Amino acid sequence: MAVTDTLAEYFGFEEHGTDLQTEILAGITTFLAMSYIVVVNADILTAYPEDNVPGGIAIPGYTPDQVFQMLAVITILASIVALLVMAFYANLPFGLAPGLGLNAFFSITVVGVLGVPWQTALAAIFVEGIVFVLLTLVGARKYVIRLFPEPVKRGVGTGIGLFLAIIGLQAMGIVVDDPATLVTLGEVAQSPVAVLSVLGLFFTFGLYARGIRGSIILGIVTTTLAGIALTFAGVVDTGILAGNFVQSGAFVPANFTGAQYDISPLVGAFADGFGQVDGFAFALIVFTFFFVDFFDTAGTLVGVGQAGGFLDEDGNFPDIDKPLMADAVGTTAGAILGTSTVTTFVESATGVEEGGRTGMTALVISVLFLVSLIFVPLATAVPQFASHIALVIVAVLMLRNVTEIQWDDFAHATAGGLTIIVMPLTYSIAYGIAAGIVSFPILKTAQGEFDDVRLGQWVLAGAFVLYFVVRTGGVLQGAL
């Protein structure tokens, strides 16, 4: 009882309208939704020479499987560092881990296509993290985020909702790629994953509609257990519905021989990366990592903050410097340990929707990551299609934020609408924000309302144009 009272007082449960049970449920929900990153991040960052795919981290004397296991451990450790800062310094319920997209840019583009040594790529991320820490300390990151036009702030939540929806529906096999239309409906009736996902999704919708507490967790767990039961019963082949843990009729991990806990070949390797590439090219790499991470994190905090009622009447996130510091420290620590940029996860919305309002939620997530270190594959015991049911549920709930945009003002409608549309279609929160920020001052000026645009908003728009020239105009390739 004393421990419960201490936690309630430290995290301010009464002040935030929550309790320990709610925070624990929220932490478990977010962890289940984002735990896939342990394996996915390690897989993206590992070099597999036998597949003839350029890029990734290769260490002489170690097999790709061993490097993969090191990176899985490092992914967990970097996440824990950032989560502890989020829990005890920011006192907010957001989950952090090495981010998707940036890890692919690290492995495929920087290391693979550009031929930059992976140690140098880690050095660039370390510099990015230090810059983030310094900018956060002086309040510069908060200032930039407050420059976001009003419709962009109001549109981010809905954009993230659509982004979560497409991620979830893809993992569930309901939406698939198509060479003619980019995306289309999958062969749902022929896919055991899609059928079970649809049943699990509507089961969870039903629980939520009934107001049952912990409905998202119940939906994920029920769908997972159903997959395991169908596998053991021989209805489907092993490895289809039961994630990494049912092989040959036994509850054992797939393709895993034991965790490689010796991560010394990666820890501190970033230091060897300085000086292996010329200064201008190095600066461009840092700039690219910096830009995407900055606006991905800002968009996630604003969007999820909107869903959780953290924003004030002006659409600003009070004390946003604190969660930004968690991101900055996590990025710096991740680079030292040997992984790509750590960022705030959009999957945090699942825990916030379950009622998470304090750092206790982040602490629970960190404890669950720590427990998964005992046996690394436990972090992905829940198959991705089951955990991503939570993303679709939350996506639907986040669409309600669209009503906060001033649709009768064309500049607001355009900036907010482009933020929402571009985000899922480019698979990037940052690019959605960019579309809104660039369009707003142009449309305001066209409407004869130039005086309503702040100088800083023009500067932000120009910075995004510069970023896209560097990112898509071949500037990086030309510098190397």
Keywords:
single chain; protein-glutamate methylesterase activity; 480 residues; Two-component system chemotaxis family response regulator CheB protein; two-stranded antiparallel ribbon; cell membrane; mainly alpha; 4 strands
Which secondary structure elements does this structure contain, and how are they paired or packed?
Elements lengths: L1 H10 L1 H4 L3 H15 L2 H9 L18 H27 L5 E3 L3 H12 L4 H20 L2 H7 L3 H22 L3 E4 L3 E4 L6 H18 L5 H18 L46 H29 L13 H17 L4 E3 L3 H6 L5 H14 L11 H4 L1 H10 L11 H17 L2 H18 L8 H18 L2 H5 L1
Antiparallel strand pairs: 1-4, 2-3
Helix pairs in contact: 3-15, 4-5, 5-13, 5-15, 7-12, 7-13, 9-12, 9-17, 9-18, 9-19, 10-11, 10-17, 12-19, 18-19, 19-20
Notes on the protein architecture:
Its main location: membrane. The chain crosses the membrane at residues 24-48, 68-89, 96-116, 122-144, 156-176, 188-209, 216-236, 280-304, 360-379, 385-403, 415-443, 455-476. With 480 residues, the chain is mainly alpha-helical. It has one domain. 62% of the residues lie in helices and 3% in strands. The chain has 21 helices and 4 strands. The protein has a two-stranded antiparallel sheet. It has a two-stranded antiparallel sheet with strand order 2-3. Helix 5 (64-90) runs antiparallel to helix 13, helix 9 packs across helix 12 (279-307) and helix 12 (279-307) crosses helix 19. The chain starts with a helix and ends with a helix. Mean pLDDT is 88; it is low at 246-257.
